[in-house]
Design goal:
Length: 199
């Protein structure tokens, strides 16, 4: 890992374990944890290959796998990947830094139809690596595929800077919404869901 992510530098000790247990508890209580996955599922063909970039403990990739997609999940935190493997068998879960992502070198040479960065992934990458993350993730997506992101725009990554990173990464904004259930974007929104395509 070239630089430590904000997930490492900006959180307290035990944060990963707390995060894992939080989502295990929510799942046990029947919370709806698949909203992002439903949107991605609606945008791809049945049986697509989907990259869950910054997959955390695997909740999104698990839903896409249940819906018949081939899923590879990647996260820089080994504890989160260990939880994903324990709780959600089926997808392939890998430890890797998104800013240096090279899945062919990890035994995944086939490109993906789509990549998703949910759960504020871009807020937690290492400062200054946002363009690299978008570029490396997009490099694994087929030319007519898409990358979809969702994050709070009032935190470490302002939307204007994100849009600059998109261009720097060789991508373009195709759609933007204020929620994963496709509510219209507005300038006062504190969350942005953005669909990106290759330029």
């Amino acid at each position: 890992m070239a630089r430590p992510t904000r997930w490492v530098t900006d959180t307290k000790p035990g944060h990963s374990e707390w995060y894992i247990e939080r989502f295990r508890t929510m799942a046990a209580e029947g919370a709806d944890l698949g909203g992002e996955a439903r949107l991605v599922d609606a945008m791809v063909r049945p049986g697509s290959r989907v990259l869950d970039a910054g997959c955390g403990p695997g909740r999104l990739g698990a839903v896409l796998h249940e819906r018949g997609h081939t899923v590879v999940g990647v996260d820089a935190d080994p504890a989160l990947i260990e939880a994903a493997e324990a709780d959600h068998p089926g997808p392939r879960w890998l430890v890797a830094d998104l800013s240096e992502l090279d899945l062919p070198a990890m035994g995944e040479p086939d490109p993906f139809d789509a990549a998703v960065l949910a759960g504020n992934v871009l807020v937690f990458v290492a400062p200054g690596t946002e363009t690299d993350v978008l570029r490396r993730v997009a490099a694994h997506v087929v030319p007519d595929g898409f990358v979809i992101t969702g994050f709070h725009v009032n935190r470490e990554l302002p939307l204007a800077r994100f849009d600059e990173c998109v261009v720097e990464a060789g991508l373009r904004v195709e759609h933007r919404f204020s929620t994963w259930d496709l509510r219209a974007w507005h300038d006062d929104a504190d969350f942005a869901v953005t669909v990106l395509r290759h330029t």
